[in-house]
Design a protein that fits this description.
heterodimer, A: 576 residues, alpha/beta, Rossmann fold, six-stranded mixed β-sheet, 26% strand, globular, B: 436 residues, Arginase, Chain A, eight-stranded parallel β-sheet, 12 helices
Chain lengths: 576, 436
Amino acid sequence: MIIGLDVGGTHTDAVLLSENGLERDIKVPTDTSNLFNTVLSGFDLLLDGIDSAKIKRIVISTTLTTNSVVQKQLNPVGIIVSSGPGIDPELFRRGEHFYAVSGSIDHRGRERQPINRNEIEQISEKMQHAGIEYVGVIGKFSPRNPAHEIEICEILKKNFPTVFLGHRVSGNLNFPRRISTVHLNTAVYSMHKNFFNAVNDTLKQKGLTAPIQILKADGGTMNLRTSMEFPGQTILSGPAASVMGSIHHAPADKDVLVLDIGGTTTDIAIIVNRAPLLEPVGIGRGKYKSLIRALQTTSRGIGGDSQVTVIEKYIEKTDVEQNGSETISRKKIKALKIGPDRQGPALAFGGPALTPTDAMIWLGIMDGGDKKLSEEGLTLLSEALELSIDQTAEKIFYQTCTTIVNLANQMVEQINSKPVYTVHEFLEGYQIKPQLILLLGGPASHFSDAIQKISGIPTMAVPHSSVANAIGAALARTTCEVSLLVDTERGVATAPEENFTATVSTSYRKDDAINTALALLEKKAVNSGADLKNFEAEVTEFQSFNIVRQFAPRGKIFRIKMQVKPGLIKGFSHGF
Amino acid sequence: MLKSNKKTGLVFFPAFDWAIDPTHPEREERLLYTQDQVSEEGVFDIKGIKEYKPDLVTAHEIRRTHFCVPDEATITTKSHLISAGGATAIARAVMEKKIDNGFALVRPPGHHAMRISHGGRGFCHINMEAVMVEMIRQEYGVRRVAIVDTDCHHGDGTNDIYWHDPDTLFISLHQDGRTLYPGSGFTGELGGPNAKGTNLNIPLPPTTATEGYLYIIRNTVLPALEEFKPEIIVNSAGQDNHYTDPLTNMKFSAQGYAELTTLLKPDIAVLEGGYSIEGALPYVNLGIILALAGMDYSRVVEPDYDEERLKQSAHVTDSIKKISDVINGYWHRRYEMREKAGRHGEIQERHREIFYDTDNIFERQKEKVRVCRDCAGAIEIDSKASPGLHIMAIHIPINACNACRETGYEMFDRAQKKKYDKIFLQDRPKDSYIIK
């Protein structure tokens, strides 16, 4: 049997799955001030009367890292960057102990200016005096050549046993995001370590010997050891859990929209041929912008418990006279505003503000709560809108669904208009056309008819939709990615993330590159806790260029990215 | 998060799967290191910088500028259509005020493509800037446009297309034609009788450095722009003036390009040539982007930049000052020169020979233009390419006066089908293109 546990903003969901399907599911309120207790009470409830020796896999998804970013509770750490020419690195400063040092590597990974050892030694002393415990080191173009980061790390070693290096986080180029990512890993490390070591010890005491896996933002898992090097990867794993929980219901060869409608927010993701779409560079959302591999999700503040209010807004109306002259008039109208705030539960459940849930209860779409309380709120609003209570409830419900559908359409449009860099992709580029909508989350089933009608796309609520997130966590495969760079003019193949360097001859071919990358990927997957029977590799990027100098070919550049395809482990998908 | 001071749009289309041939300077690898530098700097994450997808220009859009022989599909590849479409995508975003300015980093280039195009010249098949400018005129009603071509090679294609158009100020800064392809663009090449002085060619001596470029911008280009008052300024931003370029002999730098961009304030910049793909392009492109976005570019310096070696010699400085004075003189006397160039209503003729180095075609042209003081004048061009076709092309300019419209149709009616393989009429006021 396997366990999936997903700590959400309001609830923590946990499921126990066997070969026969869902054996047990529980929901406990999340205590954000004590996530450790929340997790433990989840396990206690779930395992009541179960022989813990039968548990073969445990996957946990938490909001620990996300919360610390939102609440700005990151530990002060030291950050050293070496940049060379370009945008002033000072603009990417993180905290007081941020040092831009000399040393420069160019776009092909050649050293243009060496590191100044004295400078690093002085900074090291200074940080130690200031009581800094953890340091991140980031070099521009370090995925092309990590030598400077490694050299700086060697110097820091005597004062700082744990140093986080930029080239280890991703093969993607983006210096500012590399700084953010390393900073995040460095700053949440001690919190992450304390939390998971405590969870691990306690579970062991309870007789749970299966290794803990932790869910990442890309919908895959990693083991405890890997997570200690990249704790930031646990950020935004909540939306990933939900998406993974819906994959089983996504048909092959179809584009599927996944809408996770919660109380406060709706998260939107896309599944193509049973694989979730990933962000091209890393998480792209505002303050989370980083190189962390993640599912492409959009999140907006609209859900079952969003606050509904009436606002006044202006609309422009153009009247065309018969003689062709136009009159533009501005008209003040009353309009509904739904979200982004949530004041609490719906009125019907004793909450402080009117919500779409109240409208649904009034309309009989959904049962439960005190309909009288919903009616009071709707009455007030209906007076302001000069509509009947029925009309008001209809309007709230319809606008909620329309807003959600529009958000989903916008996301699809945005992905389809993403620039591409080859003629082939420009002409043949895959365009997403959703053929099915899967709904997740507590109120999901009540929305499906309306969303189907508004979107014109077949829509269904995922079975067990209120715990699909925990099911997704339980079933998520262990994933990872490798980037291999080959420069036959320079005679090297490198995968800096994997500490891999090999010499290559000019006869090195595409197949050699793919085989090398595959071997590296397999090794990395096993190290992250993957079971090779679930291993499914795919090439996500392949580029090859002739290097020509003085009008003569001098070699080739191959750039290859390979990943374990995010997906579900085998053997537990029956009965959903 | 980093934020730009201006809203700047970028189209990045490196055409990683297209080359003239594998070892040609115009090959897949050309923008690879630029992409690496721009990605590594996180440029697309800067708030205020927006990446756009290129358009695909249509035959109809090309036909507002060119006469493609035998037709558009034969002489272009999809890559040309996307490259020009990169320019139009930026132009639309600028015209619709979604962005303050923008830069199309596209390839292949276009500024050697002339009004009549039988194939490739100087790696160019269709003229991106001209196709874009005519789109702007057609769709947004813009009349006065300035194109400043800072590629190291004379922008002879753009020069040819706007040779008779007094509403387009075309200025080309380039290495002296006696020392570099295409061997034209001398100070006396000032435009046809209807547009004398709105074509300014500024040949610079080899080893001109940053100082010399900026001198010309400040003392000749900016004053002319100031007086001309264009509604839109376009920069054909070739990057082969760089000190590391393998095809040219100049000493320009990334800092210089950024400064030039800051001074020129183009609404739209379009990448043209530039073949120092590792030593120059990554830094120059970054410099131009930051300058357009109004951001600090002081640290965008090539790793091998050596101030001493890149100093301009005194005699070069002197000759640049003289060239500047000569051009300024022409500019001030432009109306006077135009009056003297011909009598209103008369037809003037010129004969030209054009070599297409990329496709190895030799073309002879006989061009007739109606001298007109009311518009850019109707034009007919008898063009014979070998190998290739013999065609007649008639152009009626967008703001044509009635007399020139009539003249254009008379020219078209007069052209005999048995004499030419094809006869084309480009009627810009009607936005139509007729083939007989």
